[in-house]
Amino acid sequence: MERCYEHILIGHFRTYRQTAFLSGPRQVGKTTTARVVARALGDHAYFTWDRQTDRAVIVAGPDAVAEKMQIHRLREAPPVCILDELHRYGKWKTFLKGLLDSHPGALRILVTGSARLDVFKAGGDSLMGRYFPYRMHPLSVGELADPGRPVWEGPLPPQRIPGEALAALVRFGGFPEPFLRQEERFWRRWRRLRTQQLLREDLRDLTHIRELGQVEMLAELIRRRVGQLVSHASLARAVNVSVDTIRRWTATLERLYWCFSVRPWHRNVARGLRKEPKYFLWDWSVVEDRGARMENLVASALLKAVHAWTDTGLGDFGLYFIRDKEKREVDFLVTREDTPWFLVEVKASGSARLSPPLARFQEATGAPHAFQVAFDLDYVDRDCFEQTRPLIVPAATFLSQLP
């Protein structure tokens, strides 16, 4: 299926000389997208660290890759070199810097990985200025509506998707294969295998953590507490390790795309919380409570939008929540250039009255927009971002305006 990242990356290689780093969770579609992009741009070669013959070429060094790609042959444009899961190579940064230095301008390079390529620092000089990062997310309502829309221009015009597509996203998540198949048995087997690979293989291969069983306990606790305030001290007691260890392990789970944290925003919020985060999962389909799953889906869509807008140069965007010591709360706040932009409260039903904290915190923060997103309302063909007062909006409309 067509992905918005194909258009983003094709635009990158037609505009910039920098290497493109495409990172994202396992099985989100990075390799398929990379191959589509390479075919669209012409001559290309694909190397993956998971295949022994390709690994031998990479270990042999930059010149071996250049020779394999026949870079000295005349072409209309430099060929595209895809390096898949390169971060698993201990000297990947040294290798990549050597490839760029030895053959400047001879290759257009796309590096993909299921761990954050800017986090696992493994030898070599800095690659600063030599790459642009792109973060790939699961499918979203906006991408299903039209993956070819220019996501780098901010909120998109609303566009309808079939109601069953939104229901399938809620139930099966946004990873392409289970979403397309929509079969309970397949989803259960897929979910189990992905979890085992991430919490066993990736954790073992990419970190020095040996207490794999305890990290699995931590991952399960986070799954059960999606959307709730999380105390690192309470997690430490439950897993029987120190608070510092919990902080390191949760940071590792974030790097491996098991979960992501949303921090509290406290500026201009009287008696606002400052420390305790909330955690959400990249695969919201494993969240058992339906209300929490819907909130997780919206959190994921907002994070995807924040990353897409930031990665494509529209500005610097952030995702937060607001809660004060009187327990008044709004689920999400999106900032632009460190300034509040819009608030989002998530509800399963549109019959719920407008949440009082939405107007209160819109006034306190000065955010231009405030939305209460309801999942049971029918699509309305109106631009949510034309409104400035707090408003109840259908999830199908609001989410279609995000990438």
Any chance you could write out the topology, listing elements then pairs?
Blueprint: H1 4-15, E1 19-23, H2 30-41, E2 44-48, H3 52-60, H4 62-68, E3 80-84, H5 92-102, E4 108-113, E5 131-135, H6 141-145, H7 163-172, H8 176-181, H9 184-206, H10 212-224, H11 232-239, H12 243-255, E6 259-264, E7 278-281, H13 290-311, E8 317-323, E9 329-336, E10 339-347, H14 356-365, E11 369-374, E12 391-394, H15 395-400
Parallel strand pairs: 1-4, 1-5, 2-3, 3-4, 6-8, 10-11, 11-12
Antiparallel strand pairs: 6-7, 8-9, 9-10
Please describe what this structure looks like.
The chain is an alpha/beta fold. The chain folds into two domains: 4-135, Rossmann fold (3-Layer(aba) Sandwich), CATH 3.40.50; 141-400, no CATH class. The protein has helices spanning 4-15, 30-41, 52-60, 62-68, 92-102, 141-145, 163-172, 176-181, 184-206, 212-224, 232-239, 243-255, 290-311, 356-365, 395-400, and strands at residues 19-23, 44-48, 80-84, 108-113, 131-135, 259-264, 278-281, 317-323, 329-336, 339-347, 369-374, 391-394. A seven-stranded mixed β-sheet has the order 7-6-8-9-10-11-12, with helices on both faces. The chain has a five-stranded parallel β-sheet with strand order 2-3-4-1-5. Helix 1 (4-15) crosses helix 2 (30-41), helix 4 (62-68) crosses helix 5 and helix 11 packs across helix 12. The protein is globular, with a radius of gyration of 22 Å.
